[in-house]
Design a protein that fits this description.
2 domains, Beta-lactamase, single chain, EC 3.4.16.4, 28% helix, Peptidoglycan synthesis regulatory factor (PBP3), Domain 2, 394 residues, 17 strands, serine-type D-Ala-D-Ala carboxypeptidase
Length: 394
């Protein structure tokens, strides 16, 4: 039995081009960022490559600031997680409460008592930044917006984000409601693991209640979706205190980057600075894909599970990042699985790690999971399987 549950180490030497040079550290001045004059008029900014999590540029990335409607990135993350777990269905109809309908600011003008599908409410949040749609979904998932906000803050702690605290699901002005450009990038990175989110955030215009008297035209608040090639999200924000904010993402070839700007004085300045960050990323860096999300990395034989052989897959796509024109090096990957398996195990539960290494130096650690839910086998199936194993070993 132990031989099937012991620590598994697999060394795979992959000839991919990658440098070992360090990328931009988390710095707070143009000098420390090698003189890069990116996002000069932002209070805070960051540029991140998604697969590796490498920070390519930052400015005051850990300064606590009001995130305005970029708050909804966390709201969207909890919605996508609920959809992925089957706790929410896109075709489910949600009845809008008086409270949700009363939300001010950006909205899709929901009426109290109106019923709208999760899919359309998700459009309302992702495209038009609807505060009413956000609260309607929050109430459905947690019973009240207050309970949902508690889940938002718990999720931030799980992501080890120390400089974020939410008071609502919308980003409307509130005391003690703050985040940072770094934390926003981390939440966006987690959200983008659910690739279907860009089916919503990449849409420039759409309609709700199509053909009805109260038809509503949705226009994306993120104009870069239309005017910057490859941008397919993610979320704008504005209040008089926060000024103009944007978390944007773009994917070119196999490289996806996330850019955050907070505290710009105008939408034009905000979009110009984000565009400059994206230009810098795509002009200076490129990635080499190692594995796609959910790709099989290895398998394991579990005697006590219903499935004798269990496929181990990645929880995210895996790449290496390097500056264009830099020296090529070989990459090794090492898989370490847990040595004790307590069944059942759910898809998405971490069961080990994939280490991407340059020699003895660990560059990245990526969680591994199982391809499907693993249930414990019955007593009689286990007995039969044990006998078969004994016969084979003779």
């Amino acid at each position: 039995m132990n031989k099937f549950l012991r620590l598994i180490t697999i060394m795979m030497v992959i000839a991919f081009a990658v440098p070992v040079s360090a990328f931009a550290e988390e710095n707070n001045s143009e000098e420390e960022n090698n003189g890069l004059a990116l996002a000069p008029d932002a209070k805070s900014a960051i540029l991140l490559e998604q697969d590796t999590g490498e920070i390519l540029f930052d400015k005051n990335a850990h300064e606590k600031l009001p995130p305005a409607s970029m708050t909804k990135i966390m709201t969207l993350l909890l919605i996508m997680e609920a959809l992925d777990k089957g706790n929410l269905q896109k075709d489910e109809m949600i009845r809008v409460s008086e409270r949700a309908a009363s939300m001010g600011g950006s909205q899709i003008f929901l009426e109290a008592g109106e019923e709208m599908s999760v899919n359309d409410l998700l459009k309302g949040v992702a495209i038009a930044s609807g505060n009413d749609a956000s609260v309607a979904l929050a109430e459905r998932l947690a019973g009240s917006e207050e309970a949902f906000v508690k889940k938002m803050n718990e999720r931030a702690k799980e992501l080890k984000l120390e400089n974020t605290h939410f008071q609502n699901s919308t980003g409307l002005p509130a005391d003690n409601h703050y985040s940072t450009s770094y934390d926003m990038a981390m939440i966006a990175n987690e959200l983008l693991k659910y690739e279907a989110i860009t089916d919503y955030t990449s849409v420039y215009e759409d309609y709700l209640r199509k053909g009805q008297d109260n038809e509503f035209w949705l226009v994306n608040t993120n104009k870069l979706v239309r005017f910057y090639p490859d941008v397919d999200g993610l979320k704008t924000g504005y209040t008089s205190e926060a000024k103009y904010c944007l978390t944007a993402t773009a994917k070119r070839d196999d490289m996806r980057v996330i850019a955050v700007v907070m505290g710009a004085e105008s939408p034009k300045e905000r979009n110009t600075m984000v565009s400059g960050l994206l230009d810098y990323a795509f002009n200076q860096f490129e990635t080499n894909k190692l594995f796609d999300r959910d790709e099989k990395i290895t398998d394991i034989h579990l005697l006590k599970s219903k499935q004798k052989n269990v496929d181990i897959v990645t929880k995210q796509s895996i790449s290496t990042l390097h500056k264009k024109g830099e020296e090529e090096k070989d990459i090794q990957t090492e898989v370490k699985l847990q040595d004790t398996w307590n069944l059942p195990v759910k898809r998405g539960d971490e069961v080990g790690k994939l280490y991407v290494k340059d020699g003895e130096q660990v560059l990245y650690e990526i969680p591994l999971t199982v391809e499907e839910d693993i249930e414990k086998t019955t007593y009689f199936s286990l007995l039969k399987r044990t006998v078969q194993e004994m016969v084979k070993s003779r």
